[in-house]
Structures are given as structure tokens and as C-alpha cells.
Amino acid sequence: MANSVPVVVAFGSNLGDSLGLMTAALNELQNHPQIELMACSRWYRTAAIGPPQPDYLNGCVLLHTTLEPLNLFSYLQTLEHQAQRQRLELWGPRTLDLDIILFADLILATPRLTIPHPRFRQRAFVLVPLAEIYPEGIDPVTGHTIASLLSQISTAGVWPWSVADVPETRPGVDPDTAPPGFPQSPQADESWQDSWVD
Known about the structure:
The chain has a single domain (about 5-195), classed as 7,8-Dihydro-6-hydroxymethylpterin-pyrophosphokinase HPPK (Alpha-Beta Plaits). It is globular, with a radius of gyration of 16 Å. It is an alpha+beta fold. The strands form 2 sheets. Strands 1, 2, 3, 4, 5 and 8 form a 6-stranded antiparallel β-sheet that branches. It has helices spanning about 20-30, 70-80, 125-135, 145-150, 190-195, and strands at about 5-15, 35-40, 45, 55-65, 95-105, 110, 115, 160.
């Protein structure tokens, strides 16, 4: 895609059919004429931050786009609205959360949007999946790679999602109905988790 730039978007959900909602949002991104999906991480089950609430399903995508930052932000908010996202409390549960983490080497601070995402450096639920698909990505604020940022934090509370470990927050979800080719985490095993958890 000519004149496109790399962008990282983080996915999250812990209400309703999380897998279905995230699949639908991913498909919408793939079908947008100004967006090219380059890579999608596996999905991860992660402990929630904030008020008491269910675990999350999280992941990251790397895309190329010719959209301007605020236009992409508005489009992602439209997808959240389609998923009936409601903002009732800070860090509260949500059906779909789509955050721009990086937008090329842009540093932006406006009342509507801050890029890079101001808290992504401390969030294992972002850095673990992001390092899987874009370890060489650079944080333009610190100059550190994604792999380096991940090495500086604890990854406790982040587990690769297994089709045999469907969170109770997604009643009725049948993992076998996921679209062909849609990324799914392999069966989790203790040795893999031990390699990440401090």
C-alpha cells in the first residue's frame, strides 16, 4: 500500500462473546480499503486491571494504513460502538477495546488522542502479544524496542489462550466455530508459561 505507515492496535475484551467480537473487529480492519493487516498475535488470557471484573482476552495487530491518526482513532471507536462498548467507569469491563499503541514514529498529544499510548510500556497484556509480532518496533519516546520494553517488566497474569481454556466470561462460545485461518493460541503448557512469568 503506497504511502502507508505501520501502526499497532491492541485488542481487548472481557464481556460477552469476546472471541466473536474481536474476530468481527479484525475482519472489519481487513476489509477497510485504507488498511492492510500485516500480522496478528495469538490471543492471551490476562488478569484484569482496575475494579473487580472477569479476565480479559487480549492481543495485538500490526497494520499498514494511509489513514490519518485521528481518522483511524474515529474508525476504531466506531467498531467499539458497534460492539456496544459502554464507558461507565475507569478501567471497567468492556465488550471491545481497541487502542492505538504506536503510529509509525509519531509522538502526538491532543485532548482526544495520545500516541504512543501513554501506559503501554507498563502493560504486559500489550507487550507480550506485541513482542510476538513486532519485537523490533521502536517506542519513539524512549527509543527502546518492544522486546527491550518487555524485558523490563513482569509478565505475571498473562497466559496464552488455549482452546481448552475458554474464559467463563464468554459463555456459549464454541472455539471450533472460529473462522478458518483466524489465529488461535496453542494449548498452554507450564514450561511455556514459566518462561514468561517472573
